[in-house]
Amino acid sequence: MTDAERDLFDVLVEEALLELPERVARMLDDMPLVVDDRPDAQTLRSMGMTPTEGDGLCGLFSGLMDTEQTLLESPPVMPNMVQIYREGIVLTAGGWSQPEADERVYEQIMITILHEIGHRFGLDEEDLGRLGYA
User: Facing residues of 85 across strands?
Assistant: First the structure.
């Protein structure tokens, strides 16, 4: 990914965050959104994936889902976090060289952010697929 493509991607992330409904955007107030080019080797290993299998990974929710937390539980050791991956999102969207690439990448960014936030609330892949966030 070139610096220009990375910069464009980051602008599209900022636009997507501004377009999130206010109630959804507030969910990110206590949960950082981290943008990386790709998942690191340790993350892939923890998911049982090889580097090649991780090429198409668009995002990841880390932490405890709200459905896993109890009132008696102390705060989790690892804070909730959403990570999105530039290369996986661009690949899933069809790449930068296609017509309307900006719009397709933007749409995949939005889907990925909503998908990962959905995991925080206990939605699994099947639930998210039914909602159109797969």
Answer: 36
